[in-house]
Write a sequence for this structure.
């Protein structure tokens, strides 16, 4: 007897931040590309945006493999919001009031770290899964010791990029739209950027598709109805600046 190995395709996404318009646009884009066999979510499904319940519902019903982000934990009172800036803290309290009991329980139960195949998944960094931002090669290099799989997936900074360990050196690499990252023997820390609040100057939603058969990851950007999301944020009483920043992708 032998088994035929079945190769899968996975969507890698995170930092949805309660932005249902952006999330739905990404899901439609994935469908238009033939769909995927599974979804990996890197945390911060809620916080900032006007539709936390709807976004959590989609993650739950889709059977996503998901880790907890700082905003998920803040919204359910599992971490202190004293470290948040005033607008983020206000949004966390707003989200806390909105969340259904079931959705709050789901977020409370998310792990900080998951391993699936060749990948470790965390929100911030492998060293500090909830809080640390990985935006420099030096800090990324230190973090290579804190996971044992070849590759690590992170969110948190809302900037699509990857870090590559080549021998002793670690490099920060741009990950432009439509470009392809081929998985080889170098260890990598990869960030898909943010679905619901991009901060790299491009206001479109950002995500990745991993093709297990070809061993490659491709980066996609998707336009969505930003005005509709902003309108809901202002109508719901969320801080104005959080709505405005969606227009700039910062
Ligand atoms: Zn975030």
């Amino acid at each position: 007897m032998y088994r035929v190995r079945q190769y899968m395709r996975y969507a890698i996404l995170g930092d949805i931040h309660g932005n249902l318009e952006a999330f739905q646009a990404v899901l439609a884009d994935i469908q238009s590309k033939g769909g995927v066999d599974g979804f990996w979510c890197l945390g911060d499904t809620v916080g900032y945006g006007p539709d936390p319940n709807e976004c959590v519902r989609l993650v739950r019903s889709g059977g996503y493999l998901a880790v907890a982000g700082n905003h998920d934990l803040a919204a359910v009172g599992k971490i202190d919001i004293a470290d948040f800036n005033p607008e983020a803290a206000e949004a966390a309290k707003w989200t806390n009031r909105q969340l259904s009991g079931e959705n709050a329980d789901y977020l409370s139960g998310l792990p900080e770290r998951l391993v699936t195949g060749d990948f470790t998944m965390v929100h911030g960094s492998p060293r500090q899964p909830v809080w640390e931002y990985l935006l420099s090669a030096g800090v990324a290099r230190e973090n290579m010791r804190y996971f044992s799989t070849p590759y690590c997936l992170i969110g948190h900074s809302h900037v699509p990029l990857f870090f590559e360990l080549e021998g002793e050196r670690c490099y920060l690499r741009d990950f432009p739209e439509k470009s392809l990252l081929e998985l080889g023997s170098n260890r990598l820390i990869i960030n898909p950027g943010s679905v619901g609040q991009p901060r790299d100057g491009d206001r479109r939603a950002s995500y990745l598709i991993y093709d297990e058969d070809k061993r490659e990851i491709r980066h996609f950007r998707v336009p969505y109805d930003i005005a509709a999301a902003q309108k809901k944020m202002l109508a719901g009483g969320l801080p104005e600046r959080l709505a405005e920043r969606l227009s700039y992708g910062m």
About this structure: The chain has eight helices and twelve strands. Helices lie at 20-32, 52-61, 70-75, 86-98, 101-108, 137-143, 226-236, 240-248.
